[in-house]
UniProtKB/TrEMBL annotation:
It comes from Umbra pygmaea. It catalyses: apo-[alkylcobalamin reductase] + methylcob(III)alamin + glutathione = S-methyl glutathione + cob(I)alamin-[alkylcobalamin reductase] + H(+); apo-[alkylcobalamin reductase] + an R-cob(III)alamin + glutathione = cob(I)alamin-[alkylcobalamin reductase] + an S-substituted glutathione + H(+); 2 cob(II)alamin-[cyanocobalamin reductase] + 2 hydrogen cyanide + NADP(+) = 2 cyanocob(III)alamin + 2 apo-[cyanocobalamin reductase] + NADPH + H(+); apo-[alkylcobalamin reductase] + adenosylcob(III)alamin + glutathione = S-adenosylglutathione + cob(I)alamin-[alkylcobalamin reductase] + H(+). Pfam families: MMACHC. Its cofactor is FMN; FAD. Its EC number is 1.16.1.6, 2.5.1.151. Belongs to the MMACHC family. This is Cyanocobalamin reductase / alkylcobalamin dealkylase. Its main location: cytoplasm. It comes from the Eukaryota. It is found in: Cytoplasm. One of its GO terms (molecular function) is cobalamin binding. CDD domains: MMACHC-like. Keywords: Cobalamin, Cobalt, Cytoplasm, FAD, Flavoprotein, FMN, NADP, Oxidoreductase.
């Protein structure tokens, strides 16, 4: 069967149309851009010109997608992370509605391969797609941490650290040429001392969330969203019940 045809603007437009009202942002990229920066064990096995898209959740996702998602389920209990379930539900729905007949491989940030590696490196993907600059030790000249491992962090020009990288969609068999040109992510933390501060805030005190405010932001998480993420994962279910998003006692399980 002939592969359906699509151009970059159709894909960007259709995905943004269905996902932006739910609080997601979509950034197209080519697989070759990603494979050019990550080491061989992390390479994705598609031709370099294959079209892909990285999906971010913005602060709005919590109120526009997550709470309505729970409200409509009438669940008594949640068995797996409800945010992950919500993101998976909306992204899969959007892909199947926007691209019937296409072969789209969807990987989520939390998915791990049998080799124990993540299915894709979300931060590298966001950087090469131009979505959010990935600040790593190698971005700090003469870095002060010696042999200590410091994890890198992406900063979005409008959202600072108030976002998450949720998924990578790969349009298998759809190859694109010069209609998709790589644009560098905005370097919103250009100063060495600010980068040191950022990496230390992310690695040593990420629970305080100060790393998220390293740049002035257009939007942050609502108080309710902060309460949710401040709560330990094993206690979030009780919080959702207190808020009325889970119904009844704990004895029954969800059915989907
Ligand atoms: C495993 C994991 C963890 C582990 C280990 C962290 C790590 N970075 O290895 C632990 C449990 C510690 C962790 C903790 C946290 N995590 Co975490 N974690 C992940 C996860 C699932 C995989 C990361 C991973 O294994 N990387 C593997 C290493 C080898 O990758 P790497 O260091 O980037 O190396 C590559 C790059 O350097 C690249 N490269 C080389 N040269 C160049 C040059 C350029 C220009 C580029 C772009 C790339 C590049 O090549 C290398 C690979 O070959 C990601 C989601 C995902 N699927 O990616 C989230 C993720 C990184 N975590 C995230 C967050 C927010 C956190 C926490 C704050 C907790 C939380 N969820 O709120 C804490 C903070 C960190 C801390 N202080 O402990 C966010 C970061 C968002 C952001 N703004 O950057 C992510 C992306 C999840 C998400 N959904 O958004 N995490």
């Amino acid at each position: 069967m002939a592969l359906p045809k699509a151009n970059v603007e159709d894909v960007r437009g259709a995905l943004s149309n269905s996902l932006s009202k739910l609080g997601f942002e979509v950034y197209p990229l080519k697989i070759g851009w990603y494979n050019a920066v990550v080491s061989t064990p992390h390479h994705l096995s598609y031709p370099d010109d294959t079209l892909a898209a990285v999906v971010l959740s913005t602060p709005d996702m919590f109120e526009k997608a997550f709470l309505p998602f729970l409200e409509n389920r009438g669940w008594k209990e949640v068995m797996t992370d409800p945010i992950d379930q919500c993101v998976k539900h909306y992204i899969n729905k959007s892909v199947s509605e926007c691209f019937p007949g296409f072969n789209v491989d969807v990987s989520f940030d939390y998915e791990i391969l049998p080799s124990r590696k993540p299915k894709f490196l979300a931060q590298s993907a966001a950087h090469v797609a131009g979505a959010a600059y990935y600040y790593q030790c190698l971005d700090v000249p003469d870095q002060p941490w010696g042999k200590k491992k410091m994890f890198g962090v992406c900063i979005h020009p409008r959202l600072g650290g108030w976002f998450a990288i949720r998924a990578l969609l790969v349009f298998v068999g759809i190859e694109v040429g010069s209609e998709l040109m790589q644009t560098a992510p905005q370097d919103c933390v250009p100063d060495r001392q600010d980068r040191i501060q950022l990496l230390e805030d992310f690695n040593l005190r990420w629970q305080e969330w100060s790393y998220r405010d390293i740049v002035p932001t257009a939007q942050t998480y609502s108080d309710r969203q902060r309460d949710y993420f401040f709560t330990r994962p094993d206690q979030r279910q009780d919080l959702l019940r207190k808020w009325g998003f889970l119904v009844g006692g704990k004895e029954n399980t969800q059915d989907n």
